[in-house]
Specification:
The structure is a homotetramer of 200-residue chains. Chain A is mainly alpha-helical and 200 residues long. Helix content of chain A is 80%, strand content 0%. In chain A, helix 1 runs parallel beside helix 4. The longest helix of chain A has 29 residues. Chains in contact: A-B, A-D, B-C, C-D.
């Protein structure tokens, strides 16, 4: 059933590619005659930061999806659904990104940041559910169980860490976003290095 | 002519992936300074519900499309057109979704729901036409005719059930939408289980 | 160099799939509280017609692109550019579609229709240029030259017929659009049948 | 690890295809009743020019990406990231394009042009970084080192030439854009010809 996985991967790649490219549409184009262009462009810096963080996040999710499917050899109906659930989270990312970009630095930045971290928390949960199911039922017979365990260990930290980001918004919103970026780097690390980093 | 089918599948996957990802663009971003953000975000809940239902619907259509093309082995001009017709329906989904999201709970929710169910009715008809044609002309020689019949039996119920959703809007609009969700689950079931469920 | 063509086809398929799916974004969502929804939805009928014509046009261009690349066996730099030129036309389609949808039936419908037919004229020219080049330099050694000639004969009519559509706008705009639809059907026909139809 | 590269290429192709197709969404649709349509359409000419330049630029970047990956035979984590960095630049292109289209010919055209050339400068730097890394670590054992050197020589000019475009905006903005177009043609040339052209 190799072919089955191939089409899931192709469809998922399409969704990742589109979601990552749509992010740019959320950045507003300053209109002509609405004041000094340079100043207007600079004033929008939270939009650029949000664009880059979300781009990095979706890109790194794609890399992780990729890693999982080098281990997943078979496919079944449950995998199709769990993968769709994950893609639901991926597709939603442009919305909290735009909300955060519009409200960062303003009075309502906390709920915007909670929505943002919350989306990532949900996606992290979906990643865990997908991998837990797949690693039990759909690996090849010659699967590298040590590598699979390292992935599980790295992913298990995801939901906890994003919950911590949410908690941090009550202390300091920009700090919670810096942690979010650090987490993207952490999940970008190959599992064996990430586990080592987390164990330090 | 395996290759012919491969390119139809790839093109269709692309359209499904884009249509499912565009859904998020229909959710409005609350602007800064237009009142309490949390309240504004919560007030938009019909948009989130519509997003999730439509996402599930398109995702499940993709799974079904996938299932059909594991049976369809050959391709011809008629298949190209019937498939385009189906994709026309898929591409249209973001529009009724956005209309429903904007009008749900308001005085005009009935025509919005009729447009929504009506789009699904048309897509269900197109699915039947495509499968009826393909199952007669384009299956492999060693086709599993029992599996094909189960798909036909499951799909034949589609247009009737979506018509019933439309009728239900005169009784109760939210109930008609709950039925719509239940139908998505029904069509997500593999045909052999779905037929069993329908025969109970 | 089979692989070279494979990546051109995949990239082109992506562009076709996206352009066809973006068309729906040009249809306006009637806002809540701006009057009777049913009437507003019906009033927008030119948008739906324009959506369907453009969908059919892009879909049929995809089928034709597909046909050409079953004959084209090799790739070179010129093919890459001529193909990009064709995709430039395909990508532009949502713009004249939206302009036509907004102005059909109003005082400015003629320039809108000219822009619409004009875009198709340019695309038809690009199709001819691509095919003329490819049919001379990039077919397989065992190419079916009779089939290639039939494609050339069918395509050569394209620019002339779309110019005729433009001319027709001075007589009657709706009639020019009906001819445009008829042309889509004509180009949807396999070349051998299309040539027969044209010779009648 | 051929397969690894295949999925990077497929994902990148998806991003290129989407970014190039989204450009059209930045062109405004003149509304009905806002004056003579023909005049309004003509007045928007900077949007069309910007659309075509950006289309050419992304198309030519795709061709170049293609060329690089005919040489790159292996994949590793660094390549995944450097490729994501490059795609970040590609995805951003619709934004400076729209800004330039809105401000070209007006008092704020200089900062708009600087943003535009600046984006291309950054992309050119990312292309150099990707290729420098890949050409040292990921070529096949039988790699054509002379071809690789020619690519390096051509790409090394990119950042310098786009910096020169930025400098030119203080002299003459339209001239800087003409140079930008000329550069697109230069990078479209196959490396061996481009190097010859540059050495003249």
């Amino acid at each position: 059933m190799e072919k089955e996985t191939a089409r899931i991967e192709a469809f998922s790649d399409g969704v990742f590619a589109i979601a990552i490219t749509l992010l740019i549409l959320e950045i507003k184009i300053p209109g002509a005659g609405s004041g000094d262009l340079t100043r207007q462009l600079l004033k929008q810096w939270p939009s650029y930061v949000a664009f880059i963080i979300s781009f990095a996040f979706i890109g790194i999710m794609w890399i992780n999806h990729h890693r999982l499917f080098t281990h997943i050899k078979r496919s079944d109906n449950a995998l199709l659904f769990l993968n769709l659930l994950l893609l639901l989270g991926v597709c939603a990312v442009p919305f909290p990104t735009a909300v955060l970009a519009q409200h960062f630095g303003l009075s309502d930045q906390r709920p915007a940041a909670i929505l943002y971290h919350g989306t990532y928390f949900v996606i992290a949960v979906f990643f865990n559910v997908l991998w837990t199911y797949a690693s039990r039922h759909l690996l090849g017979k010659d699967a590298d169980s040590s590598a699979a365990h390292k992935i599980s260990a790295q992913y298990a930290l995801g939901p906890i860490l994003y919950l911590f980001c949410i908690a941090l918004t009550w202390v300091n919103v920009p700090m919670s976003l810096l942690l979010n970026i650090a987490l993207a780097v952490f999940f970008a690390l190959p599992p064996h290095r990430a586990v080592r980093t987390a164990n330090r």
